[in-house]
Amino acid sequence: MNEKRNQLKESGRGLVVSWALCAVCLIGHLSHFIGAKVSWIHAFHSTGFHMSLSLFTLLGPGRKLITDGLKSLIKGAPNMNTLVGLGAISSFAVSSLAALIPKLGWKTFFEEPVMLIAFVLLGRNLEQRAKIKATSDMTGLLSLLPSKARLIVNGDLSVEVPCNNLSVGDQIIVLPGDRVPADGIVRAGRSTVDESSFTGEPLPVTKLPGAEVAAGSVNLNGTLTIEVRRPGGETSMGDIVRLVEEAQTREAPVQQLADKIAGHFTYGVMALSAATFVFWNLFGARVLPAALHQGSPVSLALQLSCSVLVVACPCALGLATPTAVLVGTSLGAKKGLLFRGGSVLERFSAVNTIVFDKTGTLTLGRPVVTKIMTQGHDKDTNTKQDSSLKWSEVDILRLAAGVETNTNHPVGKAIVHAAQAANCPVMKAGEGTYIEEPGSGAVAIVENRKVLVGALDWLKRHGVDESPLQELEETKNQSAVYVGIDDDLAGIIYVEDEIREDASHVVESLSKQGISTYLLSGDKKNAAEYVASVVGIPKDKVLYGVKPEQKKKFISGLQKEHIVAMVGDGINDAAALASAHVGVAIGGGVGAASEVSSVVLMHNRLSQLLDALELSRLTMKTVKQNLWWAFAYNIFGIPIAAGALLPVTGTMLTPSIAGALMGLSSIGVMTNSLLLRFKYSSREKEIGGPSVRIDIPLDADRVVDQDKKLKDPFVSTR
């Protein structure tokens, strides 16, 4: 990474110098047009001064570019640099001849090499910058691992040691709130562990003796004794980093269109220029003797052959891709779409298969309260009554939140947020009454009532009388939290990772465009298939319970026959995102997923995927139009420059006129690139504009009608 940054700095210095020289050229021309009389300003327009600028450009900022092009030509593999080098050198050579031999009657155009090098270096610098952004050193991901661990020695004493010194078989203690320092197996204790970094699932997992834990996961509420199973420095997090590095060192599968044909075009231009010189030198006097009255056949042949090289100078060809990419990426940034390089736009426009992660991508990635089911109960007499007398949804939510204000469990937080959104009074557990059993539930005295919140079997063990309670519908993707009040089962709070509102629309739109969609999840089968059925992904294209390395393997398999984009949001998706042809991160551009992804949806809306796809297609369409214009200009311009019209109409392109036409073609390319903004705006109007969604924070909404909140206290979380 340091080496690449140094190269970018060096490229930036060359870019600044080349554009400074270009600005000086423009100042000289401007002073000439406005008729400035000051002698030092007039010097800016002198032939000698422009010749010096052009020579300095070739030997300075453009030296490496021209040298690389000539080396490639010698090796028999000419590239875009070869075309640039030939164009710049031929422009300088013809202008030098015109300046040194005035009787030739040619005009000089020393500014052409300066402008050509400046524009080409701009495109190269933008591409280098994009590549550095697309490659992550993953130091932020590795920083999630703790540096020290509490090692058990002499049976019960613990000492802090560096994690790198841990060996297989060592036993370590992990306290509540700490990150697990090494991969291992639980030998003692009970706790809930947040593994969302690896599985992507928002709900923590209960860990009992014998369960496996991964370094970097967070121990929430219990003390664990863990036996180390991998030596220090070798962790699941490290495995993900290695997978990402492996994917990033792989070469891009698609190259720029201009580079694909630059080599053949170079040979063609050189051959045509040589043929032009030979023809007019040997046969020019016979074909058109009148044209030679002011010069020799050699002079005419040299002028026409140089005109061919100048007309073919790939200024427009070199600008075709970078100008369109520059407009496309800047337009995307304004729309909250971060594209990292022109090759990303090219690959994304060709995508025919999109793989979605489930949690945080098709879903919101956080548990929310979706339903509360109540049990008939008379609050005053504390006896069972008719079902019309029951704990209300607000009562159950309020009392449960009073217990859960003491926990950092994600489900508990969801209950508290739902109570806040419903404007429930803030309840607190009686001092010293709160007791939590990790992975099972919690109990406390709230408003002089014993309130238990947790799993059904845990409530039974604590004396809660299980009354018949018919569930309204199958739980599907939901988790059920049972609430007991004064030893009676009062109700059930359903919590789920809610599906994004625009997910089904996005999948449907992709299907209409002929793009296949897959769901790849580390969650259990029922949850994955339920989400897929809601958003419209076929059941046979759902993979569940997959680990990060399995995700990467699946993506690699699809790439053998398809152009694949992966859409994800977490650390567990990092390897698959880096491995796919196009990695798309959703979630505001934060975290390891955005570090390795080539496209980031900054507004955290899945519908932005459709906007990004449309913008990439329009950008590549513009690139192809630019390339068509650049080559069409050469197809018509080169024969005229070679003297094709000279015998018929007497029309001949001098090198200076050829240089002007070259500049005109560049202006046409840049104008078409700038029109991309209007094309995209009109396309947005045609499809009804970009889809917009307003997410209401769980703990913020206070505007919803109070009566509606009492009927549906968690309405603002939906």
Automatic annotation (TrEMBL):
Protein name as it appears in the record: P-type ATPase A domain-containing protein
Localization terms from the record: Membrane
Domain P-type ATPase A: 144-245
UniProt keyword Lyase, yes or no: no
Record family assignment: Belongs to the cation transport ATPase (P-type) (TC 3.A.3) family. Type IB subfamily.
Native organism: Coffea canephora
Membrane-spanning parts: 12-34, 40-59, 80-102, 108-126, 265-288, 300-327, 627-646, 652-675
InterPro entries associated with the record: ATPase_P-typ_cyto_dom_N, ATPase_P-typ_P_site, ATPase_P-typ_TM_dom_sf, ATPase_P-typ_transduc_dom_A_sf, ATPase_P-type_domA, HAD-like_sf, HAD_sf, P-typ_ATPase_IB
Source domain of life: Eukaryota
Membrane topology reported for the UniProt record: Multi-pass membrane protein
